[in-house]
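Quick log. Single chain, no ligands specified.
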Amino acid sequence: MLAAPWFLVVVALVVNVLTSALLLNSESSKIRARLAVKPGPSAEEVASQEAAAAAAAAPPPVIWSFKTAAVDELIAELKNERQSLMEEQKDLAALSSQVTAERQEVERVKSEVAKMRQELDARVVEVAENERDNLKKLVQTYMVMPPASAVLILRELDEDTVVKILSNMKADRVALILGEMARVADKSSDEPPSRRAARISDKLRLMKALKKEVAQ
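-> predicted structure:
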């Protein structure tokens, strides 16, 4: 019976099952031993893991944007101030140009005044001492003559002499003579009578101005 083939097969199967059970039991013991020996995470590792988890769960940081209402207002104010400064610079440049032009105008007027003074000195008739007596007599003569008659005589004299005579007359008398002189035409000259009367009047004005300046 022990030599029967089926008995040997059964014995072999039993031995194989027992051997596999022993091997499995041994490997399970080793695994349980390793698991029992393995230490748990330290407090620092736990804190680090919790911090990492909290950081991962935290919302992303908000990046501050410069494009805010306050910044836009500040930029607008700076632009306005810059524009104002540019306009003020333009106004200053225009004012500087105006001042320069006015200074040039003043210099031009001074130059013209100096030129007029030179012309005045050249045109003003100076009465010499030796002419005073004769001049007084002529003045007295023309003072009593009608203006029309005085003009007929004065027309024949040069303008400097006429100015000397009229400068020693009273203003109302001079006005009558000059008015008559401007009205009556001189047939011997193509020049309008009013032009000669105006020229003599201008010389009289310059002579009076010179007399006032000398008196001062």
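The helical segments are 5-37, 43-57, 69-123, 132-144, 147-154, 159-166, 171-183, 193-215.
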